[in-house]
Amino acid sequence: MTPHAGREAHRSTIDAEPRILPLIAVRPNSVRAIIEPLVGRQSAAHAAVRVSLDGGEGHEIDVDPAAVRDLLEPLVAAAFANAAGPAAETDGPPLHEVDVAVVATADGLEVEIADSGPDQPVAIRVPSHLRDVAARCGAEVTVATCAAGGTAVTVRFPRRGARRQAA
User: Fold this and answer.
1) Minimal CA–CA distance to 120: which of 70, 67, 92, 79?
2) Which is the CATH superfamily of the domain at 28-166?
3) DSSP class per residue in 95-124
4) How far lies 103's CA from each of 88, 91, 120, 154, in Å?
5) How many CB atoms lie within 10 A of CB 107?
6) Which residues fall within 8 angstroms of residue 74, CB to CB, at 6 or more apart?
7) Beta-strand (E) ranges in the chain?
8) For the whole prediction, is pTM greater than 0.90?
9) Is-contact 166 157, C-beta < 8 A?
């Protein structure tokens, strides 16, 4: 038997066996694991901006993590860019900060990204292509003016059961 013939015989045996591929299930993804690197990169690029990241531990969503990153990354970058610019007018010293909070609610999960920069219109902070990404994630995005100045963007991810009921 030549070496090639042995390999061919072995190969035909393997090919004859049924191949069972593992199922790829959508698994819950840690919101903290998705957002923490985004905040870290922007923090390194904007050293003068003070940042806080609250919550997210143990909070998971069943949405494609790449789509969530596509949604949150430009929102985090915009908050840092806004906070790094001219500070909002306040009675106190000028602030340059970004606060990111992840909070579980009765019907889902919210990620709030707030900055101390000047107020920005919704169209600037959340352009239409980001609204499309949010729709792919089943999320809702709102923008509000912070009482102390600045802009807050809130992304609401509904719980899986809540999405099914709405559909």
Assistant:
1) 79
2) Histidine kinase-like ATPase, C-terminal domain (3.30.565.10)
3) --EEEEEEEEETTEEEEEEEESS----HHH
4) 26, 29, 23, 10
5) 15
6) 130
7) 29-30, 50-55, 60-61, 97-105, 108-115, 140-145, 151-158
8) no
9) no
Instruction: Find the helix or strand (DSSP H, E) in which 151 lies.
Output: strand 151-158
Q: Which two three-digit tokens encode residue 132?
A: 């499309």
| Both structure tokens of 144 | 């509000």
Phi, psi for 55 (deg, rounded to 5): 80, -170
Instruction: Give residue 104's identity as a one-letter amino acid code.
Output: A
Is the Cβ–Cβ distance between 72 and 111 less than 8 Å?
yes
φ, ψ for residue 140, nearest 5 deg: -120, 135
Show me where the domains of the chain are located.
28-166
pLDDT digits (tens, 9 = 90+) for 89-120: 655 566 789 999 999 998 899 999 999 888 88
Specify the residue for token string 């970004």.
Answer: 98
Report the DSSP beta bridge partners of residue 104: 109
Neighbours of 45 (CB within 10 A): 12
Three-state secondary structure call for residue 61 = strand
